[in-house]
Design brief:
Blueprint lengths: L4 E10 L4 H14 L2 E12 L1 H16 L3 E5 L4 H9 L10 H9 L7
Parallel strand pairs: 1-2, 2-3
């Protein structure tokens, strides 16, 4: 894999109790590489704080002229919560598709 990209796997719950550590992991990686791919494939749950984290990481990356993209499979529980919360019109199964839906949920490009 290129040294310009880092993959960060979100495992377990992506919830209020874990978002601070996950945010630190991704922002630290963004200081070292221009692009971070976040995989949710091993995520077992996500709450509103987790969704906010994903949107905030994308905004943070844009502001710092970097990139954060979602990749890999999206677990059923995550897809369901994204749809129930109104972040996607239908359950999505691929990170790239979820990435597209979340891209326009953050602040406009600066």
């Amino acid at each position: 894999m290129s040294t310009n990209v880092r993959v960060v796997n979100f495992t377990g719950d992506v919830t209020l109790s874990t978002v601070t550590g996950l945010a630190e992991t991704v922002t630290t990686a963004l200081k070292e590489v221009p692009m971070v791919l976040v995989s949710l494939s091993q995520c077992t749950d996500i709450d509103l704080a987790g969704v906010q984290l994903l949107i905030s990481l994308k905004r943070y990356a844009r502001l710092h002229k970097k990139a954060v993209h979602l990749t890999g499979a999206v677990p059923e529980v995550v897809a369901g919560r994204m749809t129930a919360g109104g972040f996607t019109p239908n359950p999505v199964r691929e990170g790239r598709e979820l990435d597209t839906h979340l891209e326009d949920k953050g602040a406009p490009n600066d």
